[in-house]
């Protein structure tokens, strides 16, 4: 089980990536940023999703589908800032 500071850091990494690029990180990227093994990165991702935040993985995968308030998959809810549209909302 990941320590709370690790889950907090994983949340921050994921949210920052969503804000900057409009895409959630893959668990291998999360692992690299956390300085842990790929397998540990995957477990941390699942633990983060299991905390109860309204985020979820695409069914049957380890890919982030939604991470509030953003959606990693295109939706009809497009978000634009300063004329740049690279985000989708839940």
Write the layout of secondary structure elements.
Blueprint: H1 4-21, H2 27-34, H3 38-49, E1 56-57, E2 64-67, E3 70-71, E4 78-81, E5 84-88
Antiparallel strand pairs: 1-2, 2-3, 4-5
Main sheet: strands, sense, barrel = 3 strands, antiparallel
- The CATH C-level name is Mainly Alpha
Shape: globular
The CATH topology, please?
Arc Repressor Mutant, subunit A
Sheet with most strands: strand arrangement: 1-2-3
- Residue ranges: pLDDT <50 for 5 or more in a row? none
Taken in chain order, the helices and strands follow as: HHHEEEEE
CATH architectural label: Orthogonal Bundle
Please identify the structural class as seen in this structure.
alpha+beta
DSSP helical segment count? 3
Question: What is the mean pLDDT?
Answer: 95
- Cα gyration radius (Å): 13 Å
Helix content: 40-55%
Q: Write down the domain tally.
A: 1
In whole angstroms, the N-to-C terminal distance is 28 Å
The fraction of residues in strands falls at: 15-25%
CATH superfamily: Winged helix-like DNA-binding domain superfamily/Winged helix DNA-binding domain
**Can you count the beta strands?**
5
